[in-house]
Each structure stands twice: as C-alpha cells, then as structure tokens.
DNA sequence: GATGAATGAGAATTCATTCAT
DNA sequence: TATGAATGAATTCTCATTCAT
C-alpha cells in the first residue's frame, strides 16, 4: 500500500468513494503528521503547507479554515474507530456461532483495534489530544458511539449474561470496563510507553484473561 | 480552605514551605484554569494576565517564559501524583497489617487517588493534555515513577504473590493492569464522561472487584 | 535616476541582476533611511513598515529577522565600498600609464570615493554606526578588504616605492595613512560637519597635497 | 588607582569635587561598560542594574531617565577630551618656549590624547557611537570645541605660520588635517584594528612626520 | 536612600486568512 | 486550480519607569 492509499482508505467510509486530488491528499497527510506531533494549536498552516509541498493559499482553497482541516481528518476517523460494530458480520457472528463466547468477542475486538491503532497511530494521537479541547469532536464521538455502538455492545452483553457467562453487573459497567481495559492497554502500548519491549501477543492474551476473570460469573 | 490554600498546598512538596505572593498565586491559578480548559498552546499569556487581574509583564517577572510557567505548575504536581508511595505509612501499612490484602491495597490506592483527582482536576487535565507534546514532562513523570513508585509497587506485588494471593503474572503486567484500571476509571469518571450519573462508591467497588478477580490466583 | 534605481544599482553586485519587488524596495529604502537616522537598535520594525507603507508582517516575509534586514543592506554595500579595487581597469591603469603617479592614484581614489559617499551617504552612515556593535559586519569588511583590496593596494605602493616616488615606510603604514586621510576628509565633510561651507574641490586637492607631501620620498 | 578612582577623576572637571556615592559610582561604571559594548539603545537599564549590583529602581533615583544617565557620562567626558587646551600651561608653553615648533605641539597633543584614549577607551567608544544619534551630544561637542579649543588652536597655527614653519593653508584646513590625522590614528589603533601588532611609538612618530611633511612650508 | 514588584506600552515575530495573478 | 505576496491582529516577551515599603 503506497503512501496515499492508506489515507484514501481511511477517508472512505462505507464504500463511498472519496476523490482526493493529489495536493489535497498531501495536505491531509502533512496535517495528520504535524497535528499528531505537535498538536493542532501548535501547528501552523504554513508548516503544513511546507511539509505538504503546496502553497499556503492552497490549503484554504480546500478547507475554509484550519479548524475545518482538523475536522476533515477527525470526522471519518471517528467512524473508522467505530468500524467493527458497523460491520454486519461482526456482531452477527457473535450471536450465531454456537461456540462463540464473550472471550472470543473481546479477543476479536482487541485484535481488530490493535491493528487499527497500529496502522493509524497518528490519527489516534490527534484524537487523544484534541478531544479535550474541541467539544464538537467529543460530541461527534458520543453521538457515533450511542447510535452505532452502544446498542449492539449491549446486546452482546445481554446475550452472554443470559448464557450465564458474564457477572450480573450493569451492562454499562461491563462496557466501560471492557473498553477501558482494551483502550488502556493500547494507549500504554503505543502512546505512553512505546519504547518498552513488548511481547504483544502474550500481553494482549493476559489482558483478555484478566478482563474475563474479572467479568465472568462466579460459579 | 480558601482559594489560594489549595494551591499553596499543591505546590508544597514534602512540607517545604512555598512562599507565593498574592499576584503569583493568582497567576498560577489563572494559568491552571486556562491551560486545563483550552490547552497550553491555545492559551495566550494576555488571557492569563487578564484572568489573573495582573499586567502581562507581571507574568514574565515571575516566570521567564510561558513554558516555565507551565513547568511551575506541572513539576510539583508530578510529585503529588506520586504522593501515596512517598508517604512512609502507606506502603508500610500494607506489609505490617496482618489483615491487609492486595485488595485493601488497591482500595486504599483507589480512594486516595479518587480524592486527589477530584480535588486537583484541572491540574490532572493539564497533565493528560500536555504530556503528549512536551517530552520533558513525560520524562519527569517516568523518572519520578521509576525512582519513587516502581520499586515499592513491585515489593507490594511480590509480597502478595508470595502469600499466594495474586496470580503468577509478571509484576510489570500486574502494575500496568492495576494502574490502567484505576486510571481508566478515574479518567472516564472525571474527564471523559463527567456528566453521567455516577454512583461513585459502587462503581469504585465494582472496579476493584473486577481487578481483584482478574488478578487473583486461581484456586 | 528615480528613487528605486539607486537602490537597485547599489544592490546589484558585479552586474548580477537583483530583482526587488516594489514592496521590497520600499522596505529597504525606509530601513536605510531610518537606520541611518536613528540607528539600528533604536529603529522599530513598525516604524520601518509605516514609512515603507507596508504592513509590518510584510517585512518579515522578506527578511526573517530585523538583523537579516540590516545585513541585506550592509552586505552588498561592503562590496561597493571596495568597488574601485574590483574594477580591473582601475589598478591596471596605475601600472600601465607612463604618466601615472601615486598622486594620480589617490586623486582617482579620492574622487571615486567622494562620489560614492555623496551618493550613498545614508548607507555609509549605517556602516559607521553599526560596525561597532556587530562583529559580523566588522569581520565581513575585514575579509573583503584582505581578499580584494589589500593585495592590490600593496602592489600599487610597491610599484611607486620602486619608482622612488614614495617614502620608504612600510606599505601597511602608507595604506593606513592614505585611507585614514581620505576617509577622515569624507567623514568630516559629510557626517561630522556637513553644514560648514565646503569648497570641495579645493579641500580635496589640499588633502591630496598634504598626503603626497607627507608620503613622498625626501630628495 | 583603584576601580572607582578613575571614574571620580574623569567626572571631576577643573578641580571641582564630585561626590559619588558608592552605588552611584557602580551604576556609572556599569553603564559605561555596557554602553561601550552594546550601545546605548541596545543596553537595558535592568542589565546595568544587574552589573552594578543595585536594584533597578536605584538607577532612577539618581538619574531621572536613561538618557540622563547617558548625559551624565558624556558631558564631563567632552570636557576632558578638550582638556589639553583647557590647561593654561599647555598652549602657553607653545608660545613661550623658544625651542618649540608645531611638530613639538602635535607631538605633545598626540602623546596626551594617546594616553587619554588608552585610559578612557570605553568612554571614547560611547562617544564614537552615540554622537551619531544624539544631536545634543554633537552640539555640546561643537560648543565646547568652538568655545575652548578652536580659538587657541588657531592662535597656535597663526603663530607657526608667521614663523614660516607651516604652509599657507587656511587655519581651518590645517586644524582639520591635524585632528583628522591624530584621531584617525587613534581610532584605527584602539577601535578599528586593536588586535594588530602595533609598535605604538614608531607609528606615532611616523604619523607625526607624515603630518609635518604634509603641512610644512615648502622651501 | 534603596529596593524590587508591578506596570503597560511597545518590541520583534508569527499566523490564519485573503486575493490578484 | 494553484500560487504566494500581503495583511494586520495577535503572540510572546522586554523595557523604562513608578511607587509602596
């Protein structure tokens, strides 16, 4: 996959084609890199233009303001973060496969998000950093979460609680613990302490085990 | 406790007295508030001056640069975050009390950090936000952690693993999971979703239970 | 010659074309005037902008720093000050013409520099003033002098000493006295006491005579 | 002579006692050093205070403004520069000693000013630099020159012209050439090229010879 | 007299944005 | 569509000066 393909892919939501001119792609790429490195507020549009190899004015031909450029990066990414739950097969499988378990579910989730974070690390970094300052980003996330993830996640939990596999905690608590634990691992792994020697597979499995023991119904 | 006492208290490390002039305290207070709200890079020194009710020049009389002002806020806070481990009694108790357990330890840790985050929320927010951009902050944290926390934390874990209370996971993994889980709860509670209806006591207890079940030695 | 031509001409070294945009020329003109009047340190970029009729930001688009603006004025001028020695004909004539004498040489030098100082007075003023504070300017002058002037000047002196026309003083001493005397006249005439009634031709001739009598070989 | 004595001496004009408090002397000393190094405009009062070891406010207790501090340095120095002509003996000797000649006069002048410049170099530097920007300094110099030096200098020249020792040039021209030549040597020696290897005595003698040959009446 | 905290105007420089080409 | 010169408001920081102690 060449340099621009990953961008095209990220920005393409639900198979809708996105046309990115050459310059536009370079601007986005440059902006993502710099926002991730220095933060939105500390990155100047002229730096972005320089790194993208375009004129300063060109950025504003495509994005009316600097903020709009940020949102152009952030909005499709929000959808992609929610992606597994948007895939019809993903949740269906959980219910339909007779062998499946909550453990399999979070293992699939963990693996899927691990690959995602690894691939789109700079974007994740932007998220982590800018969510705090831009309430509109935070709201978008919450909306997408509530509309596309929450309900499905809850059905999964209900299902496994009915099967007696999960402790009788409120679904919200289980959701929070699951997400917190997975996100906590990924943030530590890729952002907080990326330089440690990580045995990813083992550490992920341990994290899953911890979570499962923590959440399973006590016999 | 009046407005300035909490600041005085925060900046006081290890009982050393800190003399803060009236103006200086107001500058720090204003800076903490604004950095927390809008981020360091997006906050101008003139805004800080205005909110603090001082002339802009006054800020630079006390702090040579804007960055130095940030560090003046951040450095003592790092120590305070590490505080429970710096308190002699805290760790000692864990070993000496015959009734103690890892569960009691993390319960104490959770309660202690819960109060801390609640009290100094704006500072925590600054941390969460600026660590990403300022490698010197990150390094300070890592140094303090390695010098003051890691060893003690490890001894606690060794102790309870020998007592057969904790699973035979590497200490590092247990430390990471413990911190991630507690920090994950506190961040969700106070920063990500502060507007939800939280039954703090119950949720903390559940989080502790989840962690304990996840980490305890399987019989 | 209109207002901008003299600037274009000054900045053009050795026939290399210099493209100065309209605004850029106005900035340089304004800067030269103000630096000459008030000195570099006492002139603010906002004043320069105002006099040049451009926005303050425009200055910094063309010159990264105020210092760079100074150097853009000063560097080509240094070459121009050395100019007569850079002209092939100038020194050649001295040796080839059978009628030439050291007196003719310094007369040519005096006339040439007189016209130069008269024409570019503000720049000379800047030089006189700023050399003291900016060692880089001083070094540039010394380098240009050593590389382009000193050797040629010395050859002229050797030549006329061999012809028995000049006293047997060290060449360095003769160079210093010649330059000091000419420069001393020009500074007094144009900078220290420009308001006196000067009969330029007569005073120059007297200066030349004084110098020649002072330097000629005693019979 | 200790550190402060030279200052006391410089500031004392015509035997009038000057009372300089300890702090005041330190301020003047520091100001002289810094103005000489970086120029008046580029030196801040806080730097002066720091170098003088006094509080910022103390400077303004003694000198209402920064400019006044400059003038406090510059004004007595102007008198001292004119000093030899102020000494009754100096000019009288020229006329009364039967052995004296214009050469002896300029030799005395040269030696006297050589010692002065050597001793008070920083002050000379301030002069050289600030005269250009402060017309009041320039005016002071001209006034002192016209009132105290010019007439006496002219009498000296008239005297030696009548004795047939000096060429029949206008007195003004001879004065200018004499001063230019002496000042030119001293500036080159101490300010422009102080790092060269100078054989001061020889070079001064040569300068005097050059000047004398240049100015003497042709037989 | 001396201090040094405080000031606010002003310094150099940066920046998002516009617009004529 | 792309450019990049131009803008002027805003930013960080400095400075001469004041004034309460």
UniProtKB/TrEMBL annotation, chains A, B, C, D:
Record-annotated DNA-binding residue ranges: 44-63
Superkingdom to which the source organism belongs: Bacteria
InterPro entries xref list: Homeodomain-like_sf, HTH-type_TetR-like_transc_reg, HTH_TetR, Tet_transcr_reg_TetR-rel_C_sf
Signal peptide (UniProt feature, chain positions): none
Domain HTH tetR-type span(s) in chain numbering: 21-81
UniProt-listed SUPFAM superfamilies: Homeodomain-like, Tetracyclin repressor-like, C-terminal domain
Keywords from the named record: DNA-binding
Pfam families: TetR_N
Chain segments annotated as coiled-coil in the UniProt record: none
Full protein name: Helix-turn-helix domain containing protein
């Amino acid at each position: 996959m060449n340099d621009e393909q990953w961008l095209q892919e990220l920005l393409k939501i639900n198979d809708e084609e996105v046309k990115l001119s050459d310059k536009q792609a370079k601007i986005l790429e440059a902006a993502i890199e710099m926002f991730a490195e220095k933060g939105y507020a500390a990155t100047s549009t002229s730096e972005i233009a320089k790194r993208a190899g375009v004129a300063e004015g060109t950025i504003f031909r495509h994005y009316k303001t600097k903020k709009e450029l940020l949102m152009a990066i952030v909005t499709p990414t929000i959808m992609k973060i929610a992606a597994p739950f948007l895939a019809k097969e993903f949740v269906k499988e959980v219910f339909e496969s007779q062998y499946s378990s909550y453990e399999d579910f979070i293992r699939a989730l963990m693996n899927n998000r691990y690959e995602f974070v690894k691939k789109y690390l700079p974007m994740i970094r932007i998220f982590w950093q800018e969510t705090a300052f831009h309430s509109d980003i935070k709201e978008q996330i919450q909306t997408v979460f509530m509309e596309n993830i929450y309900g499905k996640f809850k059905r999964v939990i209900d299902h496994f609680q009915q099967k007696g596999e999960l402790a009788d905690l409120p679904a919200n608590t289980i959701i929070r613990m699951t997400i917190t634990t997975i996100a906590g691992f990924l943030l530590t792994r890729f952002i907080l302490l990326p330089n440690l020697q990580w045995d990813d597979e083992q550490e992920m499995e341990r994290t899953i085990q911890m979570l499962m023991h923590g959440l399973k119904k006590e016999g």
